[in-house]
Design a protein that fits this description.
Elements lengths: L2 H10 L3 H11 L5 E9 L2 E9 H4 L9 H14 L2 H4 E2 L6 E16 L3 H4 L5 H10 L1 E15 L7 E4 L1 H4 L5 E8 L2 E8 L4 E3 L5
Parallel strand pairs: 1-7
Antiparallel strand pairs: 1-2, 2-5, 3-6, 4-5, 6-9, 7-8
Length: 197
């Protein structure tokens, strides 16, 4: 499929170093998720990254049955892109494939400056362990097909109604007409996509 290379291109639109820098800075900004959208003919590919706190209200590892049930329910909701990102009915869009999962990432603070000194010994090792933190992020990928792409004039983000802790989505959009960045927020949950197909 031609659409998948477009997602790769969208990642390369800005400098890889800059993209990584932005990703590191924004990775744990609660309330802010990231959505990549690529248009190609009748197809739309989307990739969503959202902090665990935005989706289920916490980022720690699920410890209780209630936590695990919240995660399962969230993954089920995230696997329904046309419920989250509503396109006009006239565009006749359908889901070709959709997947969603929770990914965990352990972050360690940088202590390299102290690791050169042997005299800190096990005290430093203990200190390092106490500065480790676990963060979780939901990741979803979608491929849609729209029978009448010209009718896909806007996307309404019901995502904000479904996930009350989500405040903003930073969007990178790519099509034959180029790449554009947008921000969509809870206060303004509609994105004009006329001319992107």
């Amino acid at each position: 499929m031609k659409i998948l290379p477009l997602i790769a291109i969208s990642t390369l639109v800005s400098s890889p170093l800059l993209a990584e820098e932005v990703r590191q800075l924004d990775a744990h900004e609660h309330g802010v998720g990231h959505l990549d959208i690529a248009f190609d003919g009748q197809q739309v590919a989307m990739e969503l990254h959202a902090p665990g706190a935005d989706i289920v209200g916490f980022e720690y590892e699920a410890k209780t049955a209630e936590d695990r049930a919240s995660i399962d329910a969230a993954v089920a909701k995230l696997a329904q892109p046309l419920t989250l990102f509503v396109l006009p009915e006239a565009a006749e869009c359908s889901v070709v494939q959709a997947s969603a999962a929770l990914e965990s990432e352990e972050e360690h603070h940088d202590h390299d400056a102290h690791e050169d000194h042997d005299d800190h010994g096990s005290e430093h090792a203990h200190d390092h362990d106490t500065h480790a933190a676990s963060h979780s992020e939901f990741h979803a990928e979608y491929l849609l097909n729209c029978a009448d792409p010209a009718a896909a004039s806007e996307i309404t983000f019901a995502y904000f109604d479904i996930f009350p802790n989500a405040l903003e989505l930073e969007i990178q959009m790519i099509s034959e007409s180029g790449a554009t960045a947008f921000e969509v927020s809870r206060d303004n949950p509609t994105l004009d996509v006329r001319g992107m197909f």
